[in-house]
Design brief:
mainly alpha; about 100 residues; single chain
């Protein structure tokens, strides 16, 4: 399921809980470090925006953390939606 414009996935509670668990199971800032590295490679424009906004905001760690978590939530939901479409193509499920 996507937003009203059909562009971004609607993040479901289960995905939020899974991402929360993913964060809590990694020691220290490991989640943040790994996700930033992947984001920089996969979507450098967003990585740059988060970085630059963090500098301007005066709280780069908080801005980076929020930006990375929101990105991961959307990414995880998109992955779940794709898997559901692949495994259950005849159910009428739509993004």
């Amino acid at each position: 399921m996507t937003d009203k414009k059909g562009l971004l996935p609607i993040v479901h509670k289960e995905i939020g809980l899974a991402v929360q668990r993913e964060i809590s199971e990694q020691p220290g800032n490991e989640f943040l470090i790994q996700t930033i590295e992947r984001l920089t490679e996969d979507n450098p424009c967003i990585a740059n925006f988060v970085s630059q906004f963090g500098v301007v905001s005066g709280n780069p760690h908080l801005v980076a953390y929020v930006g990375i978590v929101v990105y991961r939530l959307l990414e995880s939901q998109a992955e779940a939606d794709k898997m559901k479409q692949e495994f259950f193509p005849d159910t009428g499920y739509q993004k």
